[in-house]
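Q: Hi! Curious about what LUD domain-containing protein looks like structurally. Here's the sequence.
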Amino acid sequence: MTSSRAAILGKVRQALGRNQGDPVPPPPLPAAIATGDGADLAQRLAERLTLTGVSLQTLASLDELAGAVTAYLARHGLNNAVALAPGLANERWQGLAVDVGGALPHHQVAVTRAFAAVAASGSLVFLAGPDHPPRSGFLPEHHLVVLSKRRLLGRLEQLWPLLDGQPGEAVHLVGGPSSTADIGGHLLYGAHGPRAVHVLLVEDRN
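A: Let's find out. The predicted structure is below.
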């Protein structure tokens, strides 16, 4: 890098109040279009998720994320570092071993943020991109999903206006853990993706 370019970038960082090497914060999400109050949508979402084998845990704030993930790992006897989506790197993860970036084959657990969720269908919505590497939602056996309560939608058609102008390479709607009943009619989880999906529903902010 030339000295003039470095000087210019240094002034930009200074204007933004950032230091060299600081992670880029994710862009703010637009307000959700929701029908009914948040409690109704959360209850409907919880009911739908239960039907598809997804567990849900409500957190009062993002400050509880690290503790909730640590407790999940302990319950399932998981000890390795967690693959953490870059879009969550700015949260507090003290005491938790994380690898920021897309999940790799040795990762058993990935933690990512959902763009939204549809209460009527129990669908979790993800925007593939640098902040949410798509393989993190499909490669590890355990997918932990951070979801803001403000991002709950009543119906699927309410999602499309929110996607206008959003960065992302693809939109993924996830209905639960990977499963199949192709062999003998017995339902098995983890056929082509995670065998467990756990939603961390956060009350306070995006």
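A: A fun detail: Residues 31-35 have pLDDT under 50 and may be disordered.
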